[in-house]
Amino acid sequence: MYTRQLLLICILLLRTQTAATKRGYALATTNAADLTTLSTNAVTWYYNWSPNPTNFKKEQIPMQWNLANINQIGTKLAANNWTTLLGFNEPERSDQANITAAVAAANWKQYFEPLHTKGIRLGAPAVSSAPEGAQWLRNFFGNCTGCHVDFLPIHWYGEGVGNLYNYVWSMSGEFKLPIWITEVFGYLLADFTKLIYINSMLQPRAILQLIWLS
């Protein structure tokens, strides 16, 4: 889920490879003035919950939000030279992608797996932090034996940095994948120093990324 109010949210990327810290945007605005302002900031990439290219002059990471036009995703990736793809958005929620785990797994095998063979990095479906999110993922991976997933995007709309820390470790420990937090509620910005501490504690490498959710 996302809001069109301008919020600062954070992304934590757990990576095994060495990488420089990047900054990005979760971009939900098409306002020309906003885009001009954002383009002058020290960011290198963005995502906008969409598989369609935009005119924003930063690296785009596309998302296959639901099943709509999923048969076109490979063509779009190739046409735009994209190398990373985010999976379905909160598929366990009826007001979001709303896809059963079995149907998502079947489509993953048909449309995502061929992209893996072409070197595309694949982000798993991004679930909410409600209990049904983790259960949906268990069902998804149970139906998608042998499927290739490179990292696990998650969302956090709970309370407290400590609880966020525990949630990150819980999801990382259970699913054995690097974690991207691609949505987190903006009030956690008040605990920014704590987020930096969490970033320093995460292993093997955690990269704290700032992202504007517009």
List its traits:
214 residues, alpha/beta, TIM Barrel, two-stranded parallel ribbon, 6 helices, disordered C terminus
CATH architectural arrangement: Alpha-Beta Barrel
How many DSSP helices? Answer: 6
What class, by secondary structure content?
alpha/beta
**Integer tally of domains:** 1
Total strands: the figure is 9
Instruction: Name the shape in a single word.
Output: globular
Helical residues, percent: 25-40%
> Taking strands numbered 1, 2, ... along the chain, how are they ordered across the largest sheet?
1-9-2-3-4
Give the biggest beta sheet: 5 strands, mixed
Give the mean pLDDT: 77
- CATH level-1 class: Alpha Beta
Percentage of β-strand residues: 15-25%
Query: Uncertain regions: pLDDT < 50 for 5+ in a row?
Result: 2-22, 200-214
Question: What does the model show?
Answer:
The chain has 214 residues and is α/β, with parallel strands linked by helices. The chain has a single domain (7-213), classed as Alpha-Beta Barrel (TIM Barrel). It is 33% helix and 19% strand. It has helices spanning 32-39, 73-80, 101-116, 131-143, 161-175, 192-201; strands at residues 7-14, 24-26, 45-47, 59-60, 84-86, 121-123, 152-156, 179-184, 206-213. It has a 5-stranded mixed beta sheet with strand order 1-9-2-3-4. The protein has a two-stranded parallel ribbon with strand order 5-6. Strand 5 (84-86), helix 3 and strand 6 (121-123) form a beta-alpha-beta unit. Helix 3 (101-116) crosses helix 4 (131-143). The longest helix has 16 residues, at 101-116. It is globular.
